[in-house]
Amino acid sequence: MQNQCHGLAYACGWWHDLGSGADLTSTPGEPAKRNVAELLCLVHSEVSEAMEGHRKGLADDKLPHRSMLEVELADAVIRIFDMAGGLGLDVAGAIAEKLEFNATRADHQPDNRRADGGKKF
To answer: Which SUPFAM superfamilies does the UniProt record give (predicted)?
Structure first.
């Protein structure tokens, strides 16, 4: 999925400088050639749109058979995978490791969450 999301964005020119045409993708360990803060804000904007669609109970305007919540969450994942691909990150590997780690976390267990000072959400 990461390769597909990034590949489409790359093919559409989002990872090329508009003036020079220079490739803006990065390899692992190389400093980012794109503004990471901007890319993160684009992810955040999709999550904010998902919240607004959910708050108002809206259908998506481009895929009206789906809720805006569903489509904007998909947009956020697409942006994350595109960003990861462009920056040479292994998000799939990180997800697998993080899921394994979270399965063993004491603060994620129901009894600990119910305790005073536990994570309620």
So the answer is: all-alpha NTP pyrophosphatases
